[in-house]
Amino acid sequence: MAGTWVFVEQRDGNIRKVTFEMLSEAKKFGDEVSAVVFGKNVKGLAPEFAKFGAEKVYAVEGDVFAEYNTGAYVAQMVAMINEFKPNAVLFAHSFNGRDFGSRLAQKLEAGLATDAIGAEISAGKGVFTRAIYAGKALAKVEVTTSPILATIRPGVFEVVEGAAAGAVVEPAVAATAADVYQTVKEFKPTVSARPELNEAAVVVSGGRGCKGPDGIKLVEELADLLGGAVGGSRASIDSGWLGHELQVGQTGKVVNPNLYIAAGISGAIQHLAGMSSSKFIASINTDTEAPIFNISDFGVVGDLFKVIPLLVAELKK
Amino acid sequence: MKVLVCVKQTFDTEAKIELKDGKIADAGINLIINPYDEVAVEGAIQLKEKGVAKEIVVLSAGSDKAMDAIRTALAMGADRGVLVTQDAGADEYARAVALAAAIKDENPDLVLAGHVAADDGSSQVPTRVAEILGLPHINVITSLDIAGGKAVASSEADGGTQVTEVSIPAVVSSQVSWNEPRYPSMKGIMQAKKKPVATVAAAAADNKVTILEYALPAAKAAGIKIEEDPDVAAVKLGDWMKNTVKVEVK
Lengths: 317, 250
Fold this sequence. Notes:
The complex is a heterodimer of chains A (about 325) and B (about 250).
Chain A: E1 4-7, E2 10-11, E3 14-15, H1 17-27, E4 33-39, H2 46-50, E5 56-61, H3 70-84, E6 88-92, H4 95-107, E7 113-122, E8 125-132, E9 137-143, E10 148-152, E11 167-169, E12 183-189, E13 202-206, H5 213-225, E14 229-232, H6 234-238, E15 259-263, H7 269-275, E16 280-285, E17 298-301, H8 304-316
Helix pairs in contact in A: 3-4, 5-8
Chain B: E1 2-6, E2 9-11, E3 19-20, E4 23-24, E5 31-33, H1 35-49, E6 55-62, H2 66-76, E7 80-85, H3 92-106, E8 110-114, H4 125-133, E9 137-147, E10 150-157, E11 160-167, E12 170-174, H5 186-194, E13 197-201, E14 209-215, E15 224-226, H6 230-245
Parallel strand pairs in B: 1-6, 1-8, 6-7, 7-13, 8-12, 9-12
Antiparallel strand pairs in B: 2-5, 3-4, 9-10, 10-11
Helix pairs in contact in B: 2-5, 3-4
């Protein structure tokens, strides 16, 4: 049992940043770090992982891996785990990563720490910090089965460059078309020039105080000026001003950007759960008693309809 | 078609979390049906209203308190319930083993559940149940069509919407935006009291994950708060963003 594997999160060769975050963090465990990538044409990606510390790159190519599908990916990973016996395998806590991790863990009758925001792996022991109740509490958990399996929350670990060999290993293909039990009929990418909520360095969110699409427009304008993502509290999602995929909070997304700007959001507990781990928090609210001010680094008591346009003008100077 | 819905009882999402003797304190906390599971129940009821589903069985694993979650689902419109009594300390593996054993006995055509629970946020159990039962699964769905022995669902994936097809029986887990769950009617609540709920013991399974300790996140302290004319406030906020946060302006 040796080595930490990082499963690469990619679509059509576009590698998601969380992959580099996991590679960077895995180096701290002192064990050999490898990237594991499945796809149709992925060998050429190896130098990308080497840059962030992957000593080895396990590249598995084939039509059956062209896009993520649980059955073939799990069959392949099980065969590789049996052959190479890694100490730990990390996945992104994403739509595909948690699906993969959960089904793999059950197949191996193993434990899995999902949505980890802290990881310590040493001497065959895997301890992870998980945010529970959407971040209102933290649990430290130990995965007591082997290999140690976890999914890692995107945007938590820092990306640190550190060149390594990145030697390509091509394991035998163990999965066949017979392992596939889901047919992806269509993937419609979100048409947005904005970054994804859980990857953005800046998130500007609008709440009830936006009063409607006009207020949301101001939020969007500020987000675009900062190259940020747009989010919303439950009030603006329930009102139909923004789609649910943009909800920040306990039944939406948990974000941790460098800067979170809450516009017209009072700060209900379920919203705070989704954003209070942001590095800097600014808020604009007419209610001086709004709970959001209790966790804001910079609070402006004022009307967002007046403050945001003036702020945009100020930032453009 | 028989639909089985897995529900979990969780803390109200507005609940403030505190620790007592190193554990999550549950005294005085309002308990609700996990919002993601509530959506799954509603989805099942809509399938019945469309004539696709004939019977809806609601299943929960947990303490006696989980009976409330089952009764809520029955009041919404599910037909009968099964409570698997299991220790609250069961991990995702043990929970999935217990649920899968009970599902096997029911032999449904479709298993619905929320894709994640609002308390532990693990997002594992429906997929694990599917693996144990050897069934295909689709997660985080926002729409579902059942026809010709197939389930076709849209899912909220990273960076887009994915449409996936699987054969049924299958396990399908819901996103909260799939539908708007109904409130149980007075009549529904009265009827729910008479609907049958079977109680069975959980299949034995050992945990694979051990919880070592709980903690509360460090409270973030309030910083600057200003109440000035909008033009002055905007300049001060802009300065802070440029000089302290060091934002890049496009």
